[in-house]
Queue: 3 jobs
Job 1
Amino acid sequence: MFRGDYVILRYEFSNASRVAGQGPSLAHRNVRNGAEQTVFVTMKQEGELWKAVNVSRTKPKEGVFLRGTMKRSGEIVYGIESYFVQEGTGKAIEDAMLRNRQGVVVELVVAPDGKASIKTVRVKCE
């Protein structure tokens, strides 16, 4: 019935060690005994894009933040890692991400509790 492609999306802010000011041991401090932990990633707008500036186990009192689950590996999963697109368009999006991660723009809608949903995915003109 439904035809289309799933696009697998990767974000710099999905790796705790890449978040500004966070060391590679953050995952080990936040995830104890192999259990996954809810974390909050504070975002800051830089031009058209948003960058992660902090990862914390406590919900920020203000600003834009994403709520995710940190795995033992330091990967943070938000539930926005795949997206259903029109059939035949998924490979072009994934190829553009491989060439230049900033060549693909994912527009998110973020709820007050940090839960994110994908609004659109588009390839920027190069």
Job 2
Amino acid sequence: MDKETQHAVTEGTSPAASGPAGSLFEGQVGAFFLLSLLVRAEPRGLPGTIIDRVEFQRASEGHPLDDVIVHAHDEHGKPAVLEIQVKKGITFAPADPIFRSVVSQIVQASRKAEFPTSRYELAIAISRRRTKLTDLIRTF
């Protein structure tokens, strides 16, 4: 089985069945990137790339920020990855347990062998009322 086929048959967890951020917002974040994939537009958070595929819920495959994973490539064919953790809200304060959890996930991701040697980006998408989705995706 080739690598492309392996990705096609790998199963993850449904966004509807996982996480407190809610399936609706997670789906909206994923749809934002799927639209970029469809029109072959440069995705937010990965400038200079084109998306190859978008995955959901891939913690079981070693993605600490597992809600939405964007796989892309640049003009030279070099791969790039963007892991996104989707949250309803976060205060970015040490006392916030959600913040502490996400920081722990970021530390885990930064310890991956490919993190320092490839283009590997991390982001948090935060749901806020009356705000455009493009304003919610923050990269680190």
Job 3
Amino acid sequence: MKNGVLFPEFSEALKEAYVDVAIKQIRGDKREPNDEGIFLITGVAKEDVCSIRTIADAVQFAKEVQEASPLATVLMAWHTDQQFSGPYGVLRDLEFESPDSSAHHAMTFSDLVSKYCAGSSPKQLLDELLASGSVVSVGNGIYRAVTRSYVPSNPLSQQNIQLFARLVHNVSESAEVNLRSSSVGGNGLMERTVYTEHGISKDELKAFDKFIRPRVQSFVDDIDNWISERDKPGRLEVVKTGIGVYHFIVNDDEDSDLSKRLSN
């Protein structure tokens, strides 16, 4: 509601998600999905199922959630690929493209995009990274990465919405896995939460934010470096995995209402 998303729009998106997941489950059972079967699994009306399935590219929810942002991919590669860093892992400033057409020119931002996001426009990616403050110009057509993470400049951009969807999906997926009987006895996924019991002052909240940011960033960088050394194309029987760290502030009204509902 805060972002102007009305219930009919949310409802339609949710129907598409249910239909998408049902189709994947049916195909996973080596069966061909049909409107009746999808209706029985999801409860989505058959006429809605038919409409969703016949609209071109309508069922793309899960694909969009899982697709990595090319902007985040470029930044990650800039920080981890030794071709784009100098001695001791210090990042190199990159030209947008080399005036030298020989095969032995220094690696450029365009080379970075070509290697990790083939098919994407280097100019458009650079413009967005500049707008978000993730990259700055140091003059003479040379650019410097100043952050390791990409934060879209437009709060309701497609990239931001996909990041939000991926976050909610991954947190919910981990929690659901740990609710399974097979996860009993420490066989589930790592899940740790630190929180206040009585609360801290608003001034201390600012100090807490300042306290956790560098520590979390250092921790995440270490994990990213470990993964990047092993996350190579062409490997067989791979598992896509990672970690997520987030700072939450409890809404007292919503938390109280949730506690009441759970106690009933």
